[in-house]
Specification:
α9 links the parallel β12 and β13. This protein is an alpha/beta fold. The two termini are 46 Å apart. It is built from twelve helices and 15 strands. The structure holds zinc ion. The site of zinc ion has 4 residues, from α11.
Length: 365
């Protein structure tokens, strides 16, 4: 039977924890990674009611979108719902894991799921993340270059979007003099050496650095490996906030709102004034995505779907776009379906259950 670690490792391949925002607390919040999993309950929020549901349905791991704990807890007296939920989980050996802004940021994540629900096409990241790509430059004897490259690619270097095993190399002369206690693969102690080497360049995701440098050192023939790593300013098109996509066929504003309401099962849409234009391009971000409005406008989106908009923020639409606030819970509820789908595809030896509890704290009268 798989352990919690097997499941969280898999979820982190899909949505690496390194992609979470600085305020976030995604990851294993309660429980030990070594525990064997009896069943997994998938939820948007991890409230006490959800923990009771997990106990009843024999699941000792809860995978939630929103982390129950954001800030440090200093006391466990059951004074608020966060303390009570954590205490109840620990008492009953229930582990709690959250995949939050990291799952928001990846292809195939929360926002791609909303786009899928709406039947959108050409789905792309709306605001790609910067400074999460690094570049490795290393020097290796020409005959050893193919094997080294193979090992680096295997470790994840040089994988860019739909292009696999990308690298650049150029041949030149490497010079060194082994001294002291050196034990050189090529050359003799205290004698200047020249070797025809390849300068190899590959880019990689910053969070893979430890693994890639380890592989570099073990797959490189030299005792001292010459290399350097630099941070790139480039955007990573594969990772970021929100998505922008197109409708298969443009719709009138009323038809679009009707479609949105029905496909996302909404009771209400709070929106800015209609502009009398056809809707073709759609930007969206599950949860509180107001910070992406400028990106949505600059990408030429006709409509921006998100949640948690405040009164004054609606004015920022400036008749350039229609902001649709569909509710935080409503925008993200299909994340449950998404996580169930990923886990059921990969694991078949325990139950992956979707929570039946509606955790939405917002009611409409
Ligand atoms: Zn959320």
């Amino acid at each position: 039977m798989p352990s919690i670690k097997d499941i969280t490792n898999y979820l982190e391949q899909l949505a690496p924890l390194a992609y979470q925002e600085s305020y976030d607390n995604a990851g294993l919040i309660v429980g030990s990674p070594q525990t064997t999993v009896s069943g997994v309950l998938i939820t948007l929020d991890c409230t006490e009611e959800i923990i009771h549901e997990a106990i009843k349905r024999d699941c000792n791991l809860i995978v939630a979108h929103h982390p129950i704990v954001f800030k440090g807890l200093k006391r466990f007296n059951g004074k608020n719902y966060v303390e009570r939920a954590v205490m109840l989980a620990i008492k009953n050996d229930i582990a709690i894991y959250a995949t939050h802004t990291n799952l928001d940021s990846v292809k195939g994540g929360v926002n791609f799921m909303i786009a899928e629900k709406l039947g959108l096409e050409n789905v792309k990241i709306l605001s790609p993340k910067k400074q999460i790509l690094k570049k490795l430059v290393t020097f290796v004897p020409t005959e050893n270059a193919p094997k080294l490259l193979e090992a680096l690619h295997e470790a994840g270097a040089g994988q860019i979007g739909e292009y696999k095993n990308c690298s650049f190399s150029v041949e030149g002369t490497g010079r060194f003099t082994p001294s002291g206690n050196a034990n050189p693969v090529i050359g003799t102690l205290n004698e200047a050496e020249e070797v025809i080497e390849n300068r190899i360049e590959v880019i990689f995701d910053a969070h893979q650095e430890f693994k890639i440098i380890k592989v570099l050192k073990s797959a490189h023939p030299y005792e001292e490996v010459a290399y350097y790593v630099s941070v790139l300013e480039n955007e990573n098109q594969e990772v970021g906030s929100g998505v922008v996509a197109t409708l298969a066929e443009s719709l009138s504003e009323i038809d679009f709102l009707t479609m949105l309401k029905s496909k996302m099962a909404l009771k209400v849409i709070r929106h800015t004034p209609l502009l009398g234009k056809e809707i073709k391009k759609v930007a969206l971000c599950g949860g509180a995505g107001g910070f992406l409005l400028k990106d949505a406008i600059s990408q030429g989106a006709d409509v921006f779907i998100t949640a948690d908009y405040k009164y004054h923020e609606f004015f920022d639409a400036e008749n350039q776009i229609i902001i649709c606030d569909i509710g935080h819970y409503e925008s993200e509820v299909y994340t449950k379906e998404l996580i169930v789908r990923y886990l059921s595809e990969k694991f078949s030896n325990f139950a992956v259950l979707k929570s039946q509890v509606n955790t939405n704290p917002v009611q409409y009268f």
